[in-house]
Amino acid sequence: CPQAVDFVPCNTCSDCLDITTSRSVDVIEIDGASNNGVDSIRELRDTVSYMPSSGKYKVYIIDEVHMLSTAAFNALLKTLEEPPAHVIFVMATTEVHKIPQTILSRCQRFDFRSIPTRQITDRLKSICSAENVLAEEDALWIIARQGDGSMRDSQSLLDQVITFADGPLTRENVVQILGLTDRSLLLEALSSLVLRDEKTIFSVLEKVQLAGYEPSLFLNDLLENVRNLLLVKVSQGAKTAILELPESELRYLQELAAQATEEDLHLLFDMALKAASDAKQSSEPRLVLEMGLLRMVKAPLMIDLKSLLSGQINPQAPSTAKPLMAAPAAPKKALSPASGAAAPSPMSLSPTERWLEFVKVVRASDALFAAKIEHLMLVSFKDKHVSLGIPPKMVFLKDQFADVATRKKLQGFIDQVWGDGYTLELKMGSESVSGVSAQALKEAEKKTKESEIAQKVAEHPLVKSATAALNGQIKSIKSNQIDNK
Predict the structure, then answer these.
(1) CA 397 to CA 428: how far, in whole Å?
(2) Average pLDDT over residues 428-443
(3) 468 pLDDT tier (thresholds 50, 70, 90)
(4) For the chain, how big is the Rg over CA atoms in Å?
């Protein structure tokens, strides 16, 4: 348009009128699906050099451009690289990923996105007002929802509904004309599932059968409604762009969401999703629908553990048990050999306890050597004489401690930890050797600690409350602390 202002045409000049009435020879529309060969593009390339008959530009509109063959794209590429100043190409496609990158890099790209359902509804409402057609807002919402973000499809559906309704548009006649599932029936099914109302769900199944609804379609619509209810619950009534619903339906879902937990809605969504998937693959989708709804209505209510233990649900009597206290760290009873100081072990410790602490100190300095001596059995520990024995099964230790250097190393650790004056005796694998090893003492100590912790855990008020609420028992206890810390 030569008289356009800010790219807005005047719609009154000869050029505008020719384009509007589709008689302009300078606006050529090409169907890419039926003219996808290289010959068609060659003809186009031969005609682009001609000047427009009127106006400034000659416009080529290639619809469904992704249908062009590879040879056709290559033929078009040269023209796109050096287009005449009077030519404009407009390419339209629904599958832009099929366009070669060499073509895309030479184009300005404009992505058209889905129109929000509320905006489509407002537009349909203005059309009905201009055409003096009485229509309920819920009916227009149904039409807009079926348009799936397309204003053109929504207006086409509105035109069909107006023609067949022959009167005011209501939710009932729109659902009947378009062959959709009644929203009130979907909300009734949703409510019965949330409240676990078995009688109502049987009524819903009867209505579905009498109305002749497609089971797969009903399950898909129900799945969408569970999703909407979950979004309403999570958003706590706040408006969100991904949740487009009429005000009446939104208020109903808000009231219903107050009676359900997020965990329970997640469970219902998973079950509805599985039922919808099974219905598509089954030869008897109606049976899948019936069994799916019955399984959902009989599902146990899902409650978060925090609410259960806080006493909001299934409260328990207050417990008099003391809070769980962390076990104090065991004090070190011997100096580390790395310190260079020697101090005798407290005389209050038993001989086995002194031997176990000795092995722990050695492990801090030499873990490999400690792994050997922890298998030695403490036969006797009297005054300053230590008698150790090698178990008959540990033959390899007999050979190692027969070495003079190994025995001296052990004696050195004894002098360093307990002080001077201690004598060492090693009994080599005799059947009469009897005593207790550091490894056995360590296992016994570990079991004692585990038993004490298990008793404290069992007496903790939160554990008691959870055990009573869930009607369960403690199977295992795992520590999140490092040993000896």
Answers:
(1) 9
(2) 67
(3) confident
(4) 42
The stretches of 82-214 forming alpha helices (DSSP H) are 101-104, 117-130, 137-147, 151-165, 171-178, 183-194, 198-211
Average pLDDT, the chain: 81
Q: Which of 102, 99, 93 is nearest to 30 (CA)?
A: 93
Q: What percent of the chain has pLDDT over 70?
A: 86
User: In the chain, how many H helices and how many E strands?
Assistant: 21, 7
C-alpha–C-alpha distance, residues 37 and 41, integer Å:
7
Q: Give the lowest-confidence range in 12-26, 92-106, 378-392, 429-443.
A: 429-443
The secondary structure element, H or E, covering residue 262 is: helix 262-281
Could you tell me which residues come within 8 angstroms of residue 324 by beta carbon, excluding any fewer than 6 positions away?
A: 456, 457, 459, 460, 463
Report helix, strand or coil for 30: strand
Distance, in Å, from the CA atom of 30 to the CA atom of 80, rounded to the nearest integer, reads: 16
What own/partner pairs with CB < 8 Å and gap ≥ 24 does 33-42 have?
A: 33/63, 33/64, 33/67, 36/67, 36/68, 36/69, 36/72, 37/69, 37/71, 37/72, 38/69, 38/71, 38/72, 38/74, 38/75, 40/72, 41/68, 41/72, 41/75, 41/76, 42/75
Query: What is the end-to-end Cα distance of the chain in Å, rounded?
Result: 84
Q: Is the pLDDT of residue 40 over 50?
A: yes
* pTM of this structure: 0.52
Q: Which string of DSSP letters, residue by residue, matches 383-413?
A: TTEEEEEE-TT-HHHHHHHTSHHHHHHHHHH
Q: Please give the Cα distance from 222 to 199 (Å, whole number).
A: 18
DSSP state of 66: G
Average pLDDT over residues 68-91: 87
Residues composing the chain: 485
Return d(Cα 411, Cα 373) in angstroms, integer.
12
Question: In whole angstroms, what is the distance from residue 345 CA to residue 98 CA?
Answer: 82
Please give the Cα distance from 378 to 363 (Å, whole number). Answer: 17
135 strand-pairing partners? 169
- Whether the per-residue pLDDT at 253 is higher than 80: the answer is yes
Tell me the average pLDDT across 247-253.
84
